[in-house]
Design goal:
By secondary structure, this protein is mostly helical. The chain contains 13 helices and no strands. Helix 7 runs antiparallel to helix 10 and helix 7 runs parallel beside helix 13.
């Protein structure tokens, strides 16, 4: 009994230390965002600003087009999320209900696609988008995000489809409904929580993405928030710390809020995909 209690206490201590490790950068970011310039250069920094100010936020919006960048990020993330779900839902239905060579091939594609690093993909993607005239354009970035998020979206939705009883679809078939009518009228409404969770996950992935946006978007009025944040760092690598922290804090909030709302649904989708029906 004593050994079990000690082990459990050790587990909780390790979990607490891990949570502190994860929370430290964000808490320090918040503290920095509200500190005046004189506190940022202090030799004895404090967690809580002695004289909180909003000057860093005002300066951030004055120095960089944060609002336009946020709109670009929103357009790219929303477009990628909607298209990825529209494409992945019927594919996931086929994979879940017809477990043959096609399902194994698509599963293999999902696994293999996640193994490729960004650097190997950027050159062919750049050439394709250049031929389509979509370099330095948000629609081109949306296409890249859809391709990148589709494997994981397909994997998540396949788990949700398998959790839907096949007897409901069989009953619809007896009533004369075809595959498409069954998917739209019977299966899709039951998949609503999974579709929302998948769409929000694709949204978060696109909202936070930096590498593709840096390569494909050239002008500041087309760039997304993660790229604009790098403009607060000067040519010699010196960061404008206060405005950078303020802008980064604003850019991080949507991801944190959305992930807090969907983390249970994401876990449920993974577990559903792991259950053998």
């Amino acid at each position: 009994m004593r050994t079990s209690t000690t082990a459990r206490a050790g587990q909780y201590a390790a979990l607490l230390a891990y949570l502190v490790f994860l929370a430290f950068p964000f808490l320090w970011l918040i503290s920095t965002a509200f500190k005046p310039a004189r506190e940022l250069g202090s030799l004895h920094p404090t967690w809580i600003p002695r004289d909180p100010t909003l000057d860093n936020f005002r300066q951030a919006f004055d120095e960089q087009p944060l609002l336009q960048a946020a709109l670009n990020s929103l357009a790219a993330a929303l477009g990628a999320a909607v298209i990825a779900v529209l494409v992945a839902t019927p594919m996931a239905y086929v994979m879940a209900r017809r477990r043959g060579r096609l399902g194994r091939a698509v599963t293999g594609w999902v696994v293999v696609s996640q193994a490729f690093p960004f650097v190997l993909l950027i050159i062919p993607l750049f050439l394709v988008l250049k031929n389509l005239g979509l370099i330095n354009a948000v629609p081109g970035l949306v296409m890249v995000y859809v391709v990148w998020s589709l494997p994981f979206a397909l994997w998540m939705l396949t788990g949700y489809v398998r959790a839907v009883p096949a007897e409901l679809e069989e009953a619809a078939a007896v009533d004369g409904a075809g595959r498409l009518r069954t998917l739209v009228s019977v299966t899709a409404p039951l998949l609503a929580p999974g579709i929302v969770a998948t769409a929000l996950f694709a949204f978060i992935t696109a909202w936070n993405e930096f590498f593709f946006a840096l390569i494909l978007l050239k002008t500041p009025e087309r760039q997304t928030l993660p790229v604009i944040l790098t403009h607060f760092i000067g040519a010699e690598g010196v960061a404008d710390l206060g405005p950078l922290a303020a802008a980064a804090f604003l850019a991080t909030l949507p991801s944190l809020v959305i992930f807090a709302l969907i983390q249970r649904r994401i876990t449920g989708g993974m577990l559903a995909g792991a259950v053998k029906s």
